[in-house]
Design goal:
The protein is α+β, with helices and mostly antiparallel strands. It contains 9 helices and 20 strands. The protein folds into 2 domains: about 5-140, Creatine Amidinohydrolase, Chain A, domain 1, CATH 3.40.350.10; about 145-375, Creatine Amidinohydrolase (Alpha-Beta Complex), CATH 3.90.230.10. The strands form 4 sheets. Strands 4-3-2-1-5-6 form a 6-stranded mixed sheet, with helices on both faces. A hairpin with a 5-residue loop joins strand 2 and strand 3 (about 65-70). The longest helix is centred in the middle third of the chain and has 24 residues, at about 145-170. It is globular and about 65 Å long. The two termini are about 25 Å apart. About 45% of the residues are buried.
């Protein structure tokens, strides 16, 4: 549970953003979908187990945790630091009536596009007040992490390192993609990640990975199958981190090796730029340009801010004109696609924005790993 000082810091930042946008109240939405529960956890301390929850934060006064009536017995209601709790038949109707009773003119919503339940939106749009999208403003208010938050982030990275070691120890041709992933998931759950994980994979035969993510399944892995497990988890403190390294028992293809030769330079060039005052688009550009010089393109943007929500603003992309600040945290995950768009190579690292250069929170080298590497020490952040 965050300290009282940390809780007050969060609310001061959020309410500062609310005042800048001239809103009277903020509805923070969260649901069970992996990575979409974090804003509720951040603002209330409530861990969503099932369905969805809202946190109502007025500009003045105490916040309220608002649950659907059917979720009364789901989740530990004693843990949150928000004390007022309401169970409503239709939460959106309760919010609309509360806003109208308070004569609010502008009500901000975090999660309006992707998270809020349709039944609640239908009720809210009937209100006499203006609904204001607030995802960007909310995320920017929480983008710079405190020292207390950084402790939780480093703990999450330590969990991923342990899971990666377990994955390496179990890696062997003949097993299924799911069987290889399973030991890491066991570590993640045992160390407090609970449902806060999204473990997906890029894989393929003949030393190459197909350019689409999938859930590890029952396909058996061959000796020259390239496996790119994307490990994404949040520890007990609720902070997400992401990490990926390439696994293969045999030899990568020539095309894969050509991609791999570029990765160290691209990631290091990005790390050096990830410091206070640099624009996010400049980091993306140096990654994209490094690969472009070797004839490769990126499958999507280079990365994104990350915290208690898996994907937060700002992005590391071509159009992101946001100035980086010290102690922002970013996942950098360039996916390199060949000219035909059929195969790819991928990595993920989590970085802290520093004063003069970025800090990679993992010092596990980028290379192709096999089971033999499980016998070597896996460094911690």
């Amino acid at each position: 549970m965050p300290s009282s000082t940390e809780i007050q810091r969060r609310y001061d930042k959020i309410r500062g953003a609310m005042r800048e946008q001239s809103v009277d109240a903020l509805i923070v939405c969260g649901n069970q979908y992996a990575g979409f529960e974090g804003a509720v956890f951040y603002t209330s301390g409530f861990e969503i187990v099932h369905r969805y929850v809202h946190v109502l934060i007025p500009l003045e006064g105490e916040p309220t945790l608002l649950f659907p009536q059917e979720a009364r017995w789901i989740g530990d209601k004693e843990k949150p630091f928000v004390k007022e709790k309401v169970w409503a038949e239709i939460p959106g109707r309760w919010l609309r009536e509360r806003a109208q009773d308070a004569a609010w003119k502008r009500v901000a919503v975090y999660g309006l596009d992707y998270i809020m339940a349709v039944r609640d939106y239908r009720e809210l749009q009937q209100g006499s007040f203006e609904l204001v999208p607030f995802d960007f403003h909310f995320d920017m208010a929480r983008a710079v992490k405190s020292e207390e938050e950084l402790v939780e982030i480093r703990d999450s990275m330590d969990i991923i390192h342990e899971g990666f070691r377990a994955l390496l120890e179990g890696f062997a041709p003949g097993k299924t993609e799911a069987e290889i992933m399973a030991p890491a998931v066991e570590v993640f759950f045992a160390r407090g990640a609970g449902p806060r994980m999204m473990n997906i994979v890029l894989s393929g035969e003949n030393g190459e990975a197909e350019a689409h993510f999938k859930v590890p399944g029952h396909r058996r892995v061959g000796a020259r199958d390239l496996m790119l497990y994307s490990l994404e988890i949040a520890g007990a403190g609720g902070y997400w981190v992401e990490f990926s390294r390439a696994l293969i028992a045999g030899e990568p293809s020539k095309r894969t090796l050509q991609m791999a030769d570029v990765y160290p330079d691209a990631m290091e060039a990005a790390r050096r730029l990830m410091h206070d005052g640099v624009l996010a688009c400049e980091v993306h550009q140096v990654v994209a340009d490094t690969f472009a010089r070797h004839g490769f393109a990126l499958g999507h943007l280079s990365g994104h801010s990350i915290g208690t929500t898996m994907i937060e603003h700002p992005a590391i992309g071509a159009k992101s004109q946001i100035e980086l600040k010290e102690n922002m945290i970013f996942s950098l995950h360039p996916q390199v696609i060949d000219k035909d768009g059929s195969v790819c190579l991928y990595t993920q690292d989590t970085f802290r924005i520093g004063k003069s250069e970025g800090e990679n929170l993992s010092n596990i080298p980028w290379k192709f790993y096999s089971k033999a590497d499980a016998q070597q020490p896996v460094s911690k952040a």
